[in-house]
Design brief:
The complex is a heterodimer. Chain A is mainly β. Chain A contains no helices and 11 strands. In chain A, strands 2, 4, 5, 9, 10 and 11 form a 6-stranded mixed β-sheet that branches. Chain A has a 5-stranded antiparallel β-sheet with strand order 1-3-8-7-6, with no helix packed on it. In chain A, strand 6 and strand 7 form a beta hairpin. Chain A is globular. The model of chain A has no long low-confidence stretch (mean pLDDT 93). By secondary structure, chain B is an all-beta fold. Chain B is built from no helices and 11 strands. The mean pLDDT of chain B is 93. In chain B, 38% of the residues are buried. Classes of the chains: A mainly beta, B mainly beta. At the A-B interface, strand 4, strand 5, strand 9 and strand 10 of A face strand 4, strand 5, strand 9 and strand 10 of B.
């Protein structure tokens, strides 16, 4: 069985500050890991993904995440928050046998304070 | 390139009715997945279609069904609607070969309200 836990349903940061959104996963097989972002009244957009290979993954809009197998984590970071980063962020897990069957976390709403 | 298009965007139904939602994937994408999003349960996988065949199915009752046409367009149907079916239904397409990649392109969703 696969699942994802996102710590913190709401995170607030000041503009220019570090963004850190936490995600821990559970998977009985090698996981595929994803971060998606959802802006108000829109669908989800892929930020970045890890399948195999390099454990530090860079995505769009300056975001990156590191796969740490020993910690079963895939935290999302951005060095400097921008007002346009305010949105809801979802971590998700799947695997090779059902890659498009994503198990999503409950989401973290990011607020950026000017 | 046009994105994923879902119709209708908003609809209101009453308990016991049925509803059909439509999804047109990005041109060239052969995989279409459906997700239900609610405040209480979050995002939950309904099913995935690839080349007109259901490839994966989530843990939803048989009232939820879908199909995919030869042009990759997909529809999902919910019969005998219940209040708890009120949700945002998201369709996503994927530029996939066999097995999928998890890289999904989502539409803006169809918001269903059941009264």
């Amino acid at each position: 069985a696969q699942s994802v836990t996102q710590l913190g349903s709401h995170v607030s940061v000041s503009e220019g500050a570090l963004v850190l959104l936490r995600c821990n996963y559970s998977s009985s097989v090698p996981p595929y890991l994803f971060w998606y972002v959802q802006y108000p009244n829109q669908g989800l957009q892929l930020l970045l993904k890890y399948t195999t290979g390099a454990t530090l993954v860079k995505g769009i809009n300056g975001f990156e995440a590191e796969f740490k197998k020993s910690e079963t984590s895939f935290h999302l970071t951005k060095p400097s928050a921008h007002m346009s980063d305010a949105a809801e962020y979802f971590c998700a897990v799947s695997d090779r046998t059902g890659a498009n069957n994503l198990f999503f976390g409950t989401g973290t709403r990011l607020t950026v304070i000017p | 390139k046009a994105g994923v298009t879902q119709t209708p965007r908003y609809l209101i139904k009453t308990r016991g009715q049925q509803v059909t939602l439509s999804c047109s994937p990005i041109s060239g994408h052969r995989s279409v997945s459906w997700y239900q999003q609610t405040p209480g349960q979050g995002l939950q996988f309904l099913f995935e279609y690839f080349s007109e065949t259901q490839r994966n199915k989530g843990n939803f009752p048989g009232r939820f069904s879908g199909r995919q046409f030869s042009n990759s367009r997909s529809e999902m149907n919910v019969s005998t609607l219940e209040l708890g079916d009120s949700a945002l239904y998201l369709c996503a397409s994927s530029p996939v070969g066999s097995g999928g990649t998890g890289e999904l392109f989502f539409g803006e969703g169809s918001r269903l309200t059941v009264l």
